[in-house]
Amino acid sequence: MDRLGxxxxxxxxxxxxxxxxxxxxxxxQVSIATSKAVYxxxxxxxxxxxxxxxxxxxxxxxxxxxxxxSSSPIDMEISKPISNITAPVPFYRTTFSPGTYxxxxxxxxxxxxxxxxxVDTEDIVIPPQxxxxxxxxxxxxxxxxxxxxxxxxLVSSGIISINNYQEQNTTVIPMxxxxxxxxxxxxxxxxxxxxxxxxxxxxxxxxxx
Length: 209
Hints:
The protein is of the alpha+beta class.
């Protein structure tokens, strides 16, 4: 076949293949959406990622605050067109300030972004590891001093807000407070109820930590 004949064959092949949907150089599209626009402390971020083509690439996720401070990149495996993801750790005051956040994703050479608001409703939300310490204190497996240090950490970090709080050199925790700690550790009362009980006792000088 001469050169002209070969060129004509290529042109004819392209003309035949194009109408049946074979495209060249097309890019994969990606979108991201959070499950709701406003989150509170204690909520877990949940979102969905939609891709037009599962390429086998690894997606890279970042959370950026309104000051443009970014989280460490998080690698995500995309194995289906729609992926629903929930963060394993909820929002806490110790790790996130109230404000606007942006969720950015990069996948197969393209990117997408969405945003959400984190608001402070002033409800007390306590990370679960403190509940473990409370249960241990109830069972006399943890000393009052160590339990008091954990309560002091909740106050100093702002999770339990007490004006003009100053850490004490001594620990005083009424033994009857073990009832509250027990109820909290087994889920009978909420973080908010337990936190406000601690707040009242410290402000009334009944508890010292």
